[in-house]
Amino acid sequence: MTLDATEAAVGGDLFAANLKGSLLAVASSAFIGVSFIVKKKGLRRAGAAGARAGAGGYGYLLEPLWWVGMVTMLVGEIANFIAYMFAPAVLVTPLGALSIIVSAVLAHFTLNEKLRRVGVLGCGLCIVGSTMIILHAPQERTPSSVEQIWNLATQPSFLCYAAIAVGVSLFLMLYCGPRYGQTNIIVYVGICSVVGSLTVMSIKAVGIAIKLTIEGINQAGYFQMWVFAVVSTTCIVIQLVYLNKALDTFNTAVVSPIYYAMFTTLTILASAIMFKDWSGQRASNIASEICGFLTVLAGTVVLHSTREPDQTVSADLYAPLPPKIYWHIQGNGDVGKQREDDSLTCEFITVVRQDYFV
């Protein structure tokens, strides 16, 4: 009876920790969802006054509205940071889908990015999937020192994952970014997602160290804690730079779901490798968590598919037209059409957007 009572008490403590982590993750999603919209409006203002962030400009750093969005995101990330102290990454990270609901609704009203009625179904799927994840999340035991976390981070399987993540990130940043970043959303979002999975692992390590220090077990003397802190800071800066590029180049309705899907998948994978989140869990619970994640993923896809794309305007209105333009003019009932030998040279310049011609 004593053993059963002890196990019940431990289980109750772990459930309470998961509940705290869940509530903090939900609050974090609300703040981050709002920050997406505020930052997007700030990026638009900065882009109207100078070089866009997507084109390599940093004028948004002088835009107050962008900084309001950054502060809002910072509050959300702090809540998310604290959530990782209490709950496993496989619980906290998928709940980030709730930020997509917030950003979708606010974008409908403030950015004129229309959300159709079917989008409500997507929101519902995200909520149902998140609930499934919360109910079947693993109960994680907190390591007793930073050294234990360091041992987890230096195991061969995670070192292999980290090496692949760094290699892929460098390839996307140095080779793909300059060539395809403005046309392929996977480049910028991929960098954010791959680097983000390492960010979560290092932030979780720092968070656990801070929690242990607050409880009276000082971890500041371990060099491993400062290594994790440097890694997390570096990764966060990289994420912010490329997330700004993605938001400024592509529609929020496209960036949010793709970023969520890639970031969450890679974070769950990294956490499963490093912290062995699913070790000792029943197959039914693991299957329920996977189904919950897939339900949330389906909801994000529905949200994306029911929203209108950005009506972006070319930065250079004085652009050369294609070598040939097919045209017809109607006046006084007569229709004049282009002859086969009529064409315009590439030097012909117009102030009318090219997509007005067919």
UniProtKB/TrEMBL annotation:
Keyword Transferase: no
One GO CC annotation: plasma membrane
TM region positions: 21-38, 58-75, 81-106, 118-138, 158-178, 185-210, 222-242, 254-274, 286-303
Keywords linked to the UniProt accession: Cell membrane, Endosome, Ion transport, Magnesium, Membrane, Transmembrane, Transmembrane helix, Transport
GO molecular function annotations of the record: magnesium ion transmembrane transporter activity
One Pfam family recorded for the sequence: Mg_trans_NIPA
Signal peptide: none
GTP-binding found in the keyword field: no
Topology in the lipid bilayer: Multi-pass membrane protein
Compartments reported by the entry: Cell membrane; Early endosome; Membrane
InterPro entries: EmrE-like, Mg_trans_NIPA
Function: Acts as a Mg(2+) transporter. Can also transport other divalent cations such as Fe(2+), Sr(2+), Ba(2+), Mn(2+) and Co(2+) but to a much less extent than Mg(2+).
Record text on subunit structure and interactions: Homodimer.
Family per similarity comment: Belongs to the NIPA (TC 2.A.7) family.
PANTHER family: MAGNESIUM TRANSPORTER-RELATED, PTHR12570
Name the UniProt record assigns to this protein: Probable magnesium transporter
Native source organism of the sequence: Miscanthus lutarioriparius
Biological classification of the source: Eukaryota, Viridiplantae, Streptophyta, Embryophyta, Tracheophyta
